[in-house]
Every structure is written in C-alpha cells, then in structure tokens.
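Students often ask what a 'structure token' actually looks like in practice. Rather than answer in the abstract, let us consider Phenylalanine--tRNA ligase alpha subunit, a protein of 345 residues. Its sequence is given first.
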Amino acid sequence: MEEQLLQLKQDALVKVKEACDLKELNDIRVAYLGKKGPITEALKGMGKLSAEERPKMGALANEVRGAVASAIEEKQAVLEKEAVAKKLAAETLDVTLPGRPVNIGNHHPLTRVVEEVEDLFIGMGYTVAEGPEVEKDYYNFEALNLPKGHPARDMQDSFYITEDILLRTHTSPVQARTMEKHEGKGPVKIICPGKVYRRDSDDATHSHQFMQIEGLVIDEHIRMSDLKGTLNAFAKKLFGEDREIRLRPSFFPFTEPSVEMDISCMICKGEGCSVCKRTGWIEILGAGMVHPNVLEMAGFDSKKYSGFAFGMGAERIAMLKYGVDDIRHFYTNDTRFLHQFHEHE
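Now compare that with the structural description of the same chain:
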C-alpha cells in the first residue's frame, strides 16, 4: 500500500503541474481527492492491515492527500492570476483613440414650431391651454355657433365615435371649455396647440391628422386693431422682421367679422413666384372677432366683453418656414429628413 500511495502522489503532482486551466485542475481535484478517488479507496483498505502498519499508512495517506491538495491550491492561484492577466489583455482600452460619435436626438420640426409659437405668446401674457382629443359634439360645434344641421359642419368632415362623441376637428373646443370655466368673467388669454382629426385624403398638403395652434383673447374693449397687431408680431417673429401682413374678409361661424391673414412671400419678397402663385402673398391663418353668440353661450355678456381668435396649422407654418414640400414628411419618421433640422438648432 505504501508503494501505491507514493505512486498516486507522484502521478497527481505531475498532472497538477501539467494542468492548463482551472477546469482541468478541478477535474484532477475530483479524481484524486474526491469520495471515489484512489486515495480514499486506499484508505478503505486499511482495515486489512495489521495494527502496527495502520498508523504508519494512515499518516502516509494524510501526507499524500495534503501534498496533492497543497499542489492544487498553488496551481489554482497561478492559473487564476494568468486568467485575470489574459482577460485584462483582451479588454485593454487604448485611451488615445478618438471616441465614437454619439447620435443625439433632435426636436421634430413640428415640435419646434409649436414651442416657438408658445414662447412668443407666453411672452405676450398668454397661457397654454389643453383639452381632450376625443371631444363632445357640443364643445366641438354647438358652443362655437355651429348647431346641428349647420351647413358649415360639412367643411369639417369628422370622425364620429357616437352621435355625440367625435375626434375633435380643431382645437377650438379648448377655447369653449376655457370660456365656460371663467363663468363670464374676463380676461381670457390663451393659446391652444394640439392634434386634430378630419376625414381627408392624405396628399402633399392634406392629412387626416395634423397639428393646430389657436389663440383666444377676451376682455373689455378688445378691438380688431388688437388682433392685427398681435398677428403682425407673430408673422415677424416666425418669418422675419421684413414680413408684411394683409387681412382679407372671410367667413367662420365662430367669428364676426372674420379674416384670412396673408404674409408677404419670403421667397420673392412680394414680387411674385411659384410659391406664392405669382401674387406676392401666402395665406397663413384664419382669424376674427369672437362672435357674440359664442360669448353668450359661454356665459359672457357680449355687450361688455369682446375678443378675438385665430387659428393656424403647425404643418403649414413649418412647411413655409423650412421649405418642406410634402406634409407627409412630418409623419414618415425618416431619419434622413429629420437630420436636416440639426442645422436649425
């Protein structure tokens, strides 16, 4: 048995020395020191030895086990150190290399237009108001002087959910709700940006969903000149100080009188080109003095209070401001299109 134990020790130490990785070393540990290993088996045979030989063989067996275990621990420390060094070498970073560029997000052109308009009017004392996109027929039409059966409803072909619920066709319901909350007491000075929906065929200039920005002012002694001055400041802020405006008579059920506002063409400076259809002017928005019926339905005394309202399409503004020729570009999520607007930051 002595020769057997010494041979086991020699074989184990050789294999430990030749081990190349931690897995192989662990296999050697299990093979020699495990419960079914040769050293354990040798110890089981000690019962056949004489009383004089047992202590000697027991001590030798423990010496062999200890020597093998010690060799394995030393080899394990070496292999672990080598593994760490190898991993560090593989993961070494060259800090002198130039960094990889990080793609940074950018404001969508419609978001930029809305925020620019909001900043302008907030600076003029307006507050930003919001309302539901799924709206009641009453606030979308009736409270705005458009009773059921009114022919002007056909101008806004609507998405109805029920007979009295629809997707709002403009942000004017926000104005109606805000006036109602004021309970007939002024002043009211709000701007209402948001999505609106109409049953329209999508093409280069039309969409079934688009952004609208509306404004409303109600107070005592509000006049058409206040509206004109406000719109003039708006045009110069968004399109340049050299822009001129003109107001043309129009019709909207919720304003009286009503006007369309044009700005002088920023391409040809009013001389006439294909963009302005040779007129020198570009239609930009609709506006007017709030109709007395709208004031009365919201609880305001139309003899005491007056006001003006205006509404514009954010896409229309963005298309003119940035030279976009197709409204669908705003909604196709083409990063090549959106990347162009980094230069406008």
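One point worth highlighting: The first helix runs from residue 2 to 18. Ask yourself how you might have guessed this from the sequence alone, and why that guess would often be unreliable.
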